[in-house]
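Same chain as my last thread, 135 residues:
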Amino acid sequence: MIPLATLPLEYARSFSLHLYTIGHGLLLLRSGKTTELVTRVDIAFYDVRWMVLPNRLNGLRIEKGQISDIPLPLTEMIKKEAHFMSVYRLSSEGVMHYLLADAVRVMEDEKDYMDNSPLLPYCNLRAFSTIPKNA
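reply #2:
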């Protein structure tokens, strides 16, 4: 198993919200390869219970936070669950974003953008890459 990420993490590259599945609360942020960058970076958060994130982040810093850091009101259910979760602060372009999750892992490799992630071994990302013709 890939070890948990050591925080803080900081990247001077663009990330997109690549995948979120509600069943297990899996969130995958991905930064693809470019002509200047020969690797992609995957950041997976596990058991996500609450998040406020844009779908694109230009530059990214991730660090642990406190429940009191979250600027929005939380429901009673989320407040109860928050004591068992970690608060993650994600900073991009001077704006702070937050999520509650159980863990975070990072993987950097040379695979293509739509290739599956080693962080989500049972998730076929290519299955989400096209819209059915009869949709």
